[in-house]
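lol so apparently i was supposed to do this last week
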Amino acid sequence: MNYQIKVNKTTESRLAKEDFSDLGFGRIFSDHMFVADYDNGEWGDFRIIPFDYLPMHPAMSSIHYGQTVFEGLKAQKNDKGEIIVFRPEKNVERLNKSALRMAMPEVPEDLFFQALDQLLNIENEWIPGGEGRSLYIRPYLFATDEFIGIRRSSKYKFIIFTSPVASYYSEPVKVYASDEYVRAFPGGTGFAKTAGNYARAIHPVEEINKRGYQQILWLDGIHKKFIQEIGTMNFFVVIDGKVITPSLEEGTILPGVTRDSVIALLKEWNIPIEERKISIDEVADAHNSGQLDDAFGAGTAATISQIKAIGYKDDEFTLPPFEERTISNRLLEALSAIKTGKIEDTHNWLRVIKPV
Ligand code: COI
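anyway here it is w/ 2-OXO-4-methylpentanoic acid bound
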């Protein structure tokens, strides 16, 4: 289907005013955003407009009851100057799975791509070059009924905006496995990319920050021992040459696009990879027997982030020096080369955005 997207471009671009030498993450926003409204069972009023505040009714239901889902993906440019996006079909698929769980309408895949292509063509100049930098794309969907009460909203907004970014973490992180706070249970919303899954990390992370840890390593809610994920990314550990990552089968962790790509690459490289339950005790035993080779997080924002140490109760399991981490270093290099089109896209992971 061809959606009629109205375009209203800004007369005052902010591009020249922004400081691209110190991007950080999520602080700078490009000039435009795509907006669509859902009402009466269908999406309409498609528009690309200057990035700006949105009017909000005080009783807007998503603010009260959390019917909101989002995505994160990145655009870069290849040597030919074409805009390339890494595995965006996985993001629209996950957006719609999250939406289903949160009783929200799906965003048609062709609408997602038309909006993305048109927006990226307009924001072309905002895509930063340089190692580890990209244009982060944030699609999100939220309920807009003006109503106090728990029920499926009848109105929604779908928005895509973009933000030039550097790496989410500028250095390796220390994570702390909490046996106090819990993120997700089987049957809950752990697999969905919904706001509450992230909000619940903020307080525990503030607590562990005081003890020198940057992020929480979530454990399962029943036994408080099986690792789920880190507050900002999926978790991988390498024990005696074997890579292990928590499996998706209980629906308690985010099915990460970077996670999936890491598993695919490891399989291709014939490096043993197991998706299964992994307890914090197994990590402790590996550390104590000198077999804890590597640990890292994987996510769109975080890419591959090496873990410096894992805290648990009063113990701390330290990891080998970064230069010895053959697996995470190789993954970081390979993924960055694939995403920037520096090596052949043998997996068909890149969408080249056609000029419109
Ligand atoms: C992403 O990786 O895209 C996320 O949404 C995680 C967040 C920490 C920025």
